[in-house]
Specification:
This protein is mainly α. The protein has one domain (2-9, 40-129). 74% of the residues lie in helices and 0% in strands. α3 (40-60) packs across α4 (71-92), α3 (40-60) crosses α5 and α4 (71-92) runs antiparallel to α5. The radius of gyration is 16 Å and the shape is globular. The relative contact order is 0.16.
């Protein structure tokens, strides 16, 4: 049950980590990314998705019943901390990568926006059912 509930979250967090740990000189130059110069959009999307996966894990798993009422807060906070940690690792550990405070801010904003969009989506679905 744990794997079924949390596998999307764990896989997404692992994908983020692996992609962010790739040495900068080994990142392929993809033509479709050429037009996406402001990489902050990618940060917004990636960490928005992460916060939604955290929210789903917290609200679905009975083990987190004590904090599920504050799931929005915890989802954004955990996703933001993970984003800041990734930026720190890019600055201090990963080869040919550079951490950026603006990227960390984009990660946190993406976590918040992702949750706002998801909550709005859930609210709309509830209204349709009633």
């Amino acid at each position: 049950m744990f794997r079924r509930l949390h596998l999307p979250l764990l896989l997404w967090a692992a994908v983020i980590f692996v992609i962010c740990a790739i040495p900068g000189n080994n990142i392929p130059k993809l033509s479709f990314l050429e037009w996406l110069r402001p990489d902050k959009i990618v940060h917004l999307i990636v960490f928005g998705i992460l916060s939604v996966f955290i929210y789903r894990s917290v609200t679905i798993d009975p083990a987190f019943a004590g904090i599920s009422s504050r799931a929005f807060f915890w989802s954004v906070l955990i996703s933001s901390i993970y984003g800041a940690l990734i930026e720190y690792l890019q600055y201090s550990v990963f080869i040919n990568r550079s951490g950026d405070i603006r990227d960390a801010a984009a990660n946190a904003i993406g976590a918040w926006l992702g949750m706002l969009i998801y909550i709005r989506y859930l609210t709309g679905r509830r209204k349709e059912k009633s």
